[in-house]
Design goal:
There is one protein chain. By secondary structure, the protein is α/β, with parallel strands linked by helices. The chain has two domains: about 280 residues, Aldehyde Dehydrogenase, Chain A, domain 1, CATH 3.40.605.10; about 190 residues, Aldehyde Dehydrogenase, Chain A, domain 2 (3-Layer(aba) Sandwich). Helix 9 links the parallel strand 9 and strand 10. It is globular and about 75 Å long.
Length: about 500
């Protein structure tokens, strides 16, 4: 009998109440206690309710996980089987994620406060689909036989790197982990994941399901822990061949140092962002631009590395656009994350909400709060913040370059195309940008000059499985998604055979 899917707040609350959440690491295919015995009461930021006693891994736990990954990799049970066999296991894992997608959605929503309407319809199903994408892709890649002199043959093969370390952020716990794990596994590597303390439970469940899917024990290990302890141990580990990361620019810089201090492990770093959204007066549909701008700034509580939170509007349509944006912001009012009707949920913690609130108070003092600027109490929690629009901040204000990571948008007028491009690029980051125009010539001209890994024209924050995602400047290097992500986890090997 097919289980009825929850559709109401009461349904989701009942399903959440029935969950048994295990906060122990998964090493060598099974749940284990942390070796130190250290635990942390993981709470739901939207209610303060304790979800689990999360075991905090330390150096010894990372050592055990890396040793397990190395044994599993060297055994060849995964690295030396055919791409077709890995494909079967990854497709089976995708099926298992789908079968338990409500549980994955609940774990992420309860951990970090995102709306269940997003985690259940986008994050969990999208993660399952990405395992299918890489499972299908890996079987269709070809090695090379380049031209060589007569009497010789050269084979150029793409080889897995070995043991991959993964450190990910808390804003898309399952989805961003999948961006790293799926291509790393598809290529034949073993993986050790250090998920965030704020949101570890979906990655832990994933590691259990990987074994059920037929991926050998030890190929996927997950050790929760603090970045300053477990993350540092993983980054410094001499038996980790490559490290993939999503998080802040500050931490990304530390990881570069750790790689140099240890074994020169390879890195793929997706770091901070402060993305711009340029709205020109020749935009065909200003209302659509405003609606998308609100989405780009406030979606997922603004806890998005590529959030288009710096909105620059041509002066002749500035007042009209601002009014439309204020209306659009009304559609992103916070609510109980387990309510499918909630447009945004809580921030990841009251501590993080305090940091975002400090930025709003700074904006209130130095500029104008054009919408929002409130911190409602919902379910007894202070982790909720209304979508906030700020105007009147000078171009050199700190908030124009500081990644707030909350539902706060800065709106600023410009007079010329050159000024808009200059303002957009006046940031240490280069992750994403958007522009709105009815002119194809301007779309090409401006997008070519915006320093960003993805430029979205007449939409915001566009991405898909087939297109690479990553940044320039201090937003990092390496790319997630698409076939190009496999380049992070493999390298070329030439085998030259001389016959004459």
């Amino acid at each position: 009998m097919t289980e009825t899917r929850p559709t109401t707040l009461a349904d989701w609350r009942a399903k959440a109440a029935a969950l048994t959440i295990d906060g122990r690491p998964v090493i060598d295919g099974r749940r284990v206690d942390s070796l130190s015995g250290a635990t942390h009461p993981k709470t739901n930021p939207a209610t303060g309710e304790t979800l689990s006693q999360l075991h905090l891994g330390e150096d010894s736990d990372i050592d055990a996980a890396v040793a397990s990954a190395r044994r599993a990799y060297e055994s060849g049970a995964w690295s030396q089987i055919s791409a077709a066999e890995r494909r079967v296991a990854l497709l089976r894992l995708a099926d298992l994620i789908e079968a338990r997608s409500d549980e994955f959605a609940l774990l992420d929503t309860l951990d970090m406060g995102k709306p269940i309407g997003e985690s259940s319809t986008i994050d969990a199903p999208g993660s399952a689909a990405l395992y299918r994408f890489y499972g299908e892709a890996i079987e269709k890649l070809s090695d090379e036989i380049p031209v060589t002199p007569v009497g010789s043959t050269a084979l150029v093969t793409r080889e897995p790197l070995g043991v991959i370390g993964v450190i990910v952020a808390w804003n898309y716990p399952l989805e961003i982990a999948t961006w790293k794990i799926a291509p790393a596994l598809a290529a034949g590597n073993a993986v050790v994941v250090k998920p965030p303390v704020e949101a570890s439970h979906s990655a832990l469940l994933l590691a259990e399901l990987a074994v059920e899917a037929g991926i050998p024990s030890g190929i996927l290990n997950v050790v929760p822990g603090r970045g300053s302890v477990a993350g540092k141990a993983l980054a410094l580990h001499m038996d980790v061949d490559m490290l993939a990361f999503t998080g802040s620019t500050e931490v990304a810089k530390q990881l570069q140092q750790y790689a140099g201090q240890s074994n020169m492990k390879r890195l793929a770093l997706e770091a901070g962002g402060k993305s711009s959204n340029l709205v020109f007066a020749d935009c065909d549909d200003l209302a659509a631009a405003a609606n998308k701008a609100a989405f780009g700034a406030f979606y997922n509580q603004g806890e998005v590395c590529s959030a288009n939170s710096r909105i620059f509007v041509e002066r002749s349509v500035y007042e009209e656009f601002l009014g439309l944006l204020q209306q659009a912001a009304d559609g992103f009012q916070p609510g109980d994350p387990l309510d499918p009707a909630s447009a945004i949920g809580s921030l990841v913690s009251e501590k993080h909400a305090d940091q975002v609130w400090e930025c709003i108070e700074e904006a209130r003092a130095d500029g104008t709060i054009a919408a929002g600027g409130n911190r409602p109490d919902i379910n007894g929690s202070r982790a909720f913040i209304d979508p906030t629009i700020v105007t009147g901040l000078p171009a050199d204000h700190r908030l124009h370059v500081h990644e707030i990571f909350g539902p706060v948008a800065l709106v600023t007028p410009f007079d010329t195309e050159e000024e808009a491009i200059t303002k957009a690029n006046e940031t240490p980051y280069g992750l994403a940008a958007s522009l709105w125009t009815g002119s194809l010539a301007r779309a090409h001209r401006v997008s070519s000059r915006l320093v960003a890994g993805t430029v979205s024209v007449n939409t915001v924050d566009a991405l898909g499985f087939t297109t690479p995602f990553g940044g320039f400047k201090q937003s990092g290097f390496g790319r997630d998604l698409s076939i190009h992500a496999l380049e992070n986890y493999t390298d070329f090997k030439t085998t030259w055979m001389q016959w004459g």
